[in-house]
Design goal:
By secondary structure, the protein is an alpha/beta fold. It has 19 helices and 14 strands.
Amino acid sequence: MVWGFSIRLASMLGHSRARAFHAMRSPQHLQALKEKTLSNDQPWAWFHCASLGEYEQTAPVIDAYLSLHPNTPILLTLFSPSAPTPLTTSSPPSWLRPTDHICALPLDTPLSVHRFLTSASRKFKFFASAKYEVWPELLLQLSNPTSNPSTTSTTSIPSYVFAAHILPGASQLRSTPSGRFLFTAWSRLTGILTQSQSSTSLLASRGLSSTPTGDPRADRVLQLSKCTTTPPSLISWKGTSRVVVAGSTWPPEDLALANLTWSPELKLIIAPHEVNPSNISRLLALFGERASLYSSGDFNSSILIIDSIGLLTSIYSLADLALVGGGFGAGIHNVLEPAAHSVPVITGPNTGRFREAVALADIGALIIASTPTELQSLLTDLLSPDNYTKLSYSGKAAGYWVEEQSGAAEKIAKYLP
């Protein structure tokens, strides 16, 4: 409640992200949900994810669920203000039909949750959330509608979390006041579906039952790797040269790459995490005349900087080696995308929270650099002709591992009512 007030205050003071966060939860959006609910004969299959990143786990589950229940309307809610616009305007998902709806999750306060559930007339087959999005007040009202005296419904709504990834010391496992609070929320879930047996075992240590069904992101990246098309201009640019694709990079990775020699025989594509004008200008200054922008149409340089979003998935197919950014900061970005293209990966050290990174490292398909200086050294070594065969084997191992993980989305969809 205090947090919700802080968001509203920040919005009134002009904070752009807070304003967007508040705007996506306006009464007009609740009215749109109400009207869509009234037009649907069947209850919603309600899926939720935090942002576009977690949507990559949710999309294949929705597709798999619709293959089993094609007439069920889908409600997708998101938490981040950056997520709904791309999914409703610029890049609508293939599953989205007139009967489906995408909107924001309400703030987790008694009144906000009640208003949201009332707008949808509590017409839900279930609520299924991706990875870690477990909201105490929402689960309370779903499992026990009489917790809100103003509701007339007495029917509880099944709730699930899927692709849950639990690490030792996770908040819901701790015997602290906050840990016990989260544990209570998790205990209200009808079902918990985890990425692995290790997560299931950790939850079992606190008395929570769960089922390992895998990570549906594997299904997502495999699907994208087969249906995306690499721009012909980039295929021609690559020619017979070897190419490093650096995806979602930050300054530490950029600096290491700038200190290496690039040539017509060894080329570089950088798709930075931020494509705003200031960051693109920084990269142009860093690489100098050696680099050109993809949007310029100049394909005579050995370094291309991708200055738009949405291309990275299709570009990985060109790579002989992929550098995935974020490992020197809060955590790596998506290493499954290059792995699905059978491309070996190198990252910074912050990989421990990511099951797929640990697994790929164990089979030699992912190389970890502890510092930017070591990253530069490892890149030089890996790209030497003596290691071409080694990189090829590492890439094949990456592709095989991702293929072995496929099928999670179908397992999850079959579990849901």
